[in-house]
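Duplicate of #3305? Posting structure anyway:
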């Protein structure tokens, strides 16, 4: 038989630009040839099996004093941008902020935007949920107290019966 005997052309299924609900199939850490660490997150658009794009890559947090690909130094702004992107990812998929246990990400769903980049390739971008309206002051005070951030008040002089003895 000759090389390529039996080849059948396959249709390349590509998502149009827009918003889709994605489910995380798998996430795994990798290292580039240059030693840079990144996490490859394989996702699937719900109801669109086999459609591309299906991969989201997140490189590790940049380090101050190191160089970027364009030979410029990493700035605090770069670190803040990375933190914002990861926060959007966690919020989008309902994953606890800072939960880098990749195995626990499997099965989480979120709404993402598929966008054609300047390069012509498609990218998947997490769409963070819209911020809700600010909490009423009384609810915020209760939340702060629950989280241990409420201002401690010593009111034992006003209410001597509260003194434990």
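Output from current build:
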């Amino acid at each position: 038989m000759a090389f390529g005997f039996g080849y059948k052309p396959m249709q390349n299924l590509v998502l149009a630009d827009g918003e889709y609900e994605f489910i995380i199939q798998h996430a795994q850490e990798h290292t580039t040839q240059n030693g840079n660490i990144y996490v490859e997150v394989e996702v699937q658009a719900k109801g669109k099996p086999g459609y591309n794009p299906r991969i989201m890559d997140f490189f590790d947090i940049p380090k101050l004093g190191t160089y970027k690909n364009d030979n410029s130094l990493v700035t605090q702004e770069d670190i803040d941008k990375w933190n914002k992107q990861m926060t959007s990812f966690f919020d989008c998929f309902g994953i606890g902020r800072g939960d880098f246990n990749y195995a626990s990400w499997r099965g989480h769903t979120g709404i993402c935007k598929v966008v054609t980049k300047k390069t012509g390739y498609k990218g998947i971008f997490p769409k963070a949920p819209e911020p809700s309206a600010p909490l009423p002051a009384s609810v915020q005070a209760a939340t702060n107290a629950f989280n241990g951030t409420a201002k401690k008040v010593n009111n034992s002089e006003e209410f001597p019966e509260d003194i434990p003895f």
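Confirmed duplicate; merging threads. The mean pLDDT is 83. Strands lie at 18-31, 37-45, 55-59, 109-116, 122-126.
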